[in-house]
């Protein structure tokens, strides 16, 4: 019997595994995707999940990026903001919106990849879809969709809480916990993001920051996504149109996005050399129907029930949404993993 099973190989699950490895525990990570990182994801070096960290205010993030040797750089935003309404596009001077935000070399996905690389390969099982968790003797049995059962003394759930609410549990979860799992949507679960790479940061030559806010859409926010030291110049945008609209206009969505970028930044914006896109609301390993429409503001998270142990003290929650102080953020993912490990293994505190 293992000491620990960790369900989910996002940043939080990988953090818990790192601590388990340091303690010399016999553990296994199971991940439904064919990759690590969860919502920390990129393609062609362009972020499609979270992009920013705030090292000045996030001690766990700061310590981790130093330990991993990741290069950190400021969010580029010198220049003017473009603001779009139905009446047209304006150019505005504005104070820095991301003054203390930082970006990581390779993005948060690279952080996850390095965490995983530091672990023994046989500790990570990909393409492993959990469908049931049950008390079994002196431990817990985690049942995988392929019929495999993994027994361990403890389990950490580092997956989106609304997804966990749809799994089978024996005994059944109490109503208070089920309510806590579904009270708040998963962060980013309603979002879609596009990143576009260009040969050069042409917007800067026009005195623009690459930042834009739109009341028209399809994008509601655009940001310079360049890494100058790496020679990669890009913009990324968050969609303001809800998931249902994005689905209905899927055939024309990219063309409408490029047209908007031309309105904001000129004809060159319509000629990227590479485009990557991710609609998290269409990802069944991130979102449930209850996650759409997304929240109008950042949810408070920090549900007390997710900071307790369950199943006779054998189960604990990690994941960014379980964090008491930094819900939905990378710092929160690290914080929740640390807290889960300390609840199940007090000697690790």
Overall shape: it is elongated
As residue ranges, the low-confidence spans are: none
**Rg calc:** 21 Å
Task: Tell me the name of the CATH homologous superfamily of the largest domain.
Answer: FAD/NAD(P)-binding domain
**Largest sheet, described in full?**
8 strands, mixed
Given helix and strand content, the structural type is: alpha/beta
Query: Per CATH, what is the topology of the largest domain?
Result: FAD/NAD(P)-binding domain
Structure report:
This protein has 349 residues and is α/β, with parallel strands linked by helices. The protein folds into two domains: 1-70 and 107-186 and 286-349, FAD/NAD(P)-binding domain (3-Layer(bba) Sandwich); 72-104 and 190-284, Polyamine Oxidase, Chain A, domain 2 (Alpha-Beta Complex). It has nine helices and 19 strands. The chain has helices spanning 11-23, 59-68, 107-117, 161-164, 175-182, 202-205, 243-248, 253-265, 330-344; strands at 2-7, 27-30, 42-43, 46-47, 72-74, 80-85, 88-92, 102-104, 124-125, 130-136, 139-144, 149-157, 168-170, 192-198, 208-214, 219-224, 233-239, 274-279, 315-317. The strands form four sheets. Strands 1, 2, 9, 10, 11, 12, 13 and 19 form an eight-stranded mixed beta sheet that branches. α1 packs parallel to α9. The longest helix is centred in the C-terminal third of the chain and has 15 residues, at 330-344. The protein is elongated. It starts with a strand and ends in a 5-residue tail after the last helix. The model has no long low-confidence stretch (mean pLDDT 96).
